Amino acid sequence: MTEEPAPTTCSAKGCGNTATWALRWNNPKIHTPDRRKTWLACDEHKESLSDFLARRSFLREIEPFT
Questions:
Q1: Where are the beta strands (DSSP E) in the chain?
Q2: How far apart are CA 65 and CA 12, in angstroms?
Q3: What does pTM read for this prediction?
Q4: Across 33-38, average pLDDT
Q5: How big is the CA angle at 24 (ends 6 and 18), to the nearest 5 degrees?
Q6: pLDDT tens-digit series, residues 6-24
Q7: Which residue range is the domain that position 33 belongs to?
Q8: What gap in Å lies between CA 20 and CA 27, rounded to an integer?
Q9: Cα(46)–Cα(15) distance, rounded to whole angstroms?
Q10: Rg of the chain's alpha carbons, rounded to an integer?
Q11: Which DSSP letter does residue 19 get?
Q12: In angstroms, what CA-CA distances link 25 with 2, 11, 16, 64?
């Protein structure tokens, strides 16, 4: 039996759109410099999610997500 991959939807609250961006971040107070967490974003929420992380100095990279 083969397991279906989990859907990859936007991390914005209440959004069910397919993710097209990976926002890589870390919190320097609790994560080592090389650790990356990932939020997924659709085109509509890319800016708002990346702004949220950037204001906290958590955003490290934004990459296309396929």
A1: 21-25, 37-41, 59-64
A2: 15
A3: 0.85
A4: 94
A5: 35
A6: 669 999 999 999 999 999 9
A7: 1-66
A8: 23
A9: 12
A10: 13
A11: P
A12: 32, 13, 21, 14
